[in-house]
Amino acid sequence: MRKHIFLAVVILVFTFFPSPGKSFTLTSHINNEIIHLSSTARHLSQGEVVKVTLASAAVAGASARFNGNDHAFLSSKDDTYFTLIPLPFDMKPGRYALTVTVDTTEAESRQFSFTVNVSPTDFPFQRITVDKQYVTPTDDVMERITNEIALVKDVYASGSAAWLGTGTFIIPSQGTIRKNFGEKRIFNNERHSIHKGVDIRSAHGWKVRAANAGRIALARDLYFAGNTVIIDHGGGLFSLYCHLSAINAREGNLVAKGTVIGSVGATGRVTGPHLHWGVKLGGYAVDPLSLTSIPFD
């Protein structure tokens, strides 16, 4: 007979995600220790972020599996952990399984299964006219673009495993926010692309601040994005700030939330001064505004 008897009594049965905005809450006992699981999301639709929180003094480790990917839980505060799960903008709407595996301090393992209903998002559409060089680059420029794509890919692949953020995310600049994440674009009636961020229309030179604490993973000029800063917040989460008129950040430095990292500009492929603010989570582009709706305190 095992020295420790595994007890798992569900006190509050989880709810399935019947509609956008719904979340689950589940409480269990394992070896007389309470395990509490809950989720938070602005919406359960394409392009959003889901935060799953685990609270227990009995946890030795935990992971979640969703849409074919594994997500590690990060330490938040005493006996509390969380993981962030992306709902990619191009994922097919429907029902998806979410499985959370909890390893206890008593060398036990327990799985909790949920169903996530991902609803479609009605993404906008826009035709844009820009300088021809940003639609049909020369061979020399294409070499630069190829090198920059590889550089940014390496940046996203070398993030911190530990959480570097502090509290809830903030909007990084003043101005008019265009809710144009996922916008389908046609440049000069030729080039098709998907807009993987939101644009904040601001006056030239207005301050741009770090949306949360982290490490400056990149701070340099890119062909399409112009003067760009990428911040690594840990746990596979990065924020991106493009088209800056000036960069006030140095690669490798740690920055606090709200630190000025640059100024609004019109560098790269633009039609006027604005801040392009993007977020990458686990390699997927997600709507930055979904993060500001999730508490991290």
Q: What report would you give on this structure?
A:
Strand 5 and strand 6 form a beta hairpin. The longest helix is centred in the middle third of the chain and has 19 residues, at 139-157. By secondary structure, the chain is mainly β. 8% of the residues lie in helices and 47% in strands. It has two helices and 23 strands. The protein has helices at residues 139-157, 288-292, and strands spanning 8-12, 25-30, 33-41, 49-55, 59-66, 69-72, 74-77, 80-86, 94-104, 109-118, 125-128, 176-178, 184-187, 191-194, 198-201, 207-209, 214-222, 226-234, 237-247, 254-255, 260-264, 275-281, 284-286. Strands 12, 15, 16, 17, 18, 19, 20, 21, 22 and 23 form a ten-stranded antiparallel sheet that branches. The protein has a six-stranded antiparallel sheet with strand order 1-2-3-4-8-7, with no helix packed on it. The protein has a four-stranded antiparallel sheet with strand order 6-5-9-10, with no helix packed on it. The protein has two domains: 8-118, Macroglobulin (MG2) domain (Immunoglobulin-like, Sandwich); 125-292, Glucose Permease (Domain IIA) (Distorted Sandwich).
